[in-house]
Design a protein that fits this description.
- There is one protein chain.
- The protein has 223 residues and is mainly beta.
- It has one domain: Leucine-rich repeat, LRR (right-handed beta-alpha superhelix) (Alpha-Beta Horseshoe).
- The chain contains 1 helix and 18 strands.
- Strands 1, 2, 3, 5, 6, 8 and 10 form a 7-stranded mixed beta sheet that branches.
- A hairpin with a 2-residue loop joins strand 5 and strand 6.
- The N and C termini lie far apart (66 Å).
- The relative contact order is 0.09.
């Protein structure tokens, strides 16, 4: 019985550490269907050491099969040290914490094919200066861009209806934001402590503004 428990513990440990199905080039992948894969990491403490510029391919070939790269998985690049990322058309999802704490990341182009960006995806990307949210996104989830301290330019598309709680909290370099017609809800502390934020355009479509949404900003929201 003791040996069985030991073996089971070892199996669980390996299952937690080794997160990928195969490697191609510098990147690791999980197979998500007969024809698609998602980007992942090698181990739970892997940070793709040595990479400065990441170019994600549209397709990868493994074991006789060509797969389309359609998603960037949970924590795939979390805490990585690279400065730029190229995401190809065909990627539709960016997972939770996918790029969180990528402190050196300065530029990223998110293609129009991306329709879902999960919470915390770019949290604490301190060097990220601008972001264009693609036109298929409907919700900006909690802390998606929180603590992006160098962020000065944000483009929110007309497709967005909800800006979630703490979505842009502590973006301390942001001075202006245009919230497009169609947004109905701005969550609690969405722009909390964006201390340079003074120019905000809020459309009539907004019917709900959460508590402390603009607390600590130069912009003073009045209902």
């Amino acid at each position: 019985m003791k040996r069985l428990i030991t073996l089971l513990a070892a199996f669980v440990f390996v299952g937690q550490v080794w997160a990928y199905d195969f490697k191609s080039g510098d990147l690791y992948y999980n197979i998500t269907s007969d024809s698609t894969v998602e980007i992942t990491y090698k181990t739970i403490d892997s940070d793709y050491l040595g990479l400065t510029n990441v170019i994600i391919p549209e397709t990868v070939f493994n074991n006789g099969v060509t797969y389309s790269v359609t998603s960037i998985g949970k924590e795939a690049f979390s805490f990585c040290g690279f400065t730029s990322v190229t995401i190809p058309e065909g990627v539709t999802q960016i997972g939770i914490e996918a790029f969180s704490n990528c402190h050196n990341l300065q530029s990223i182009n998110i293609p129009a094919s991306v329709t879902y960006i999960d919470a915390f995806a770019f949290q604490s990307c301190y060097s990220l200066k601008s972001i264009v949210i693609p036109p298929g996104i409907t919700t900006i989830y909690p802390e998606t861009f929180a603590a992006c301290e160098s962020l000065t330019s944000v483009t929110i598309p007309n497709s967005v209806t909800t800006i979630g709680p703490t979505a842009f909290t502590c973006c301390i370099s942001l001075t202006s934001i245009t919230i497009p017609e169609g947004v109905t809800s701005i969550g609690t502390a969405a722009f909390y402590r964006c201390r340079k934020l003074k120019n905000v355009s809020i459309p009539k479509s907004v019917t709900s503004v959460g508590e402390d949404a603009f607390l600590g900003c130069k912009f003073k929201y009045k209902e």
